[in-house]
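I'll show an entry:

:::
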Amino acid sequence: MIKPNTLIVRPDGPLQFEGEMTLEDGEGNLLQRGDEAWLCRCGQSQDKPFCDGAHKRCGFSDPARFDDERHEVLATPNGPLQLTLKTDAMLIARGPLSIRSKDGTSSTTRNRAALCRCGQSQNKPFCDASHKQCGFRG
């Protein structure tokens, strides 16, 4: 049985993806294919895009609670999820995706989402282009 594509936003920690996903860099190079990935959202990992625990050392703080004005109805909860890293910018998710906080207090569904990787967005877990002001490199 295929798991539904899920993004769990962990408080003060990484983005945890579960489901059928492919992760590529901005040039289309395959970084990972599988059913689980833990990706940095504090912007400080030395192993970007993957989480290396830097959020604990740098004091990253985010309660993982969010509102989503762009909620969409999904045609299916699973199917291919394409994750693409934009150079020095956001992570783009394309495909059916349920996004929820670890404690379940926040949730939404999207067919496309731009997610913050720099740790500075005021609309976490979504990107608000803060990477341009903070000089994020990833």
Observations:
- DSSP finds two helices and six strands in the chain.
- The first strand starts at residue 6 and ends at 9.
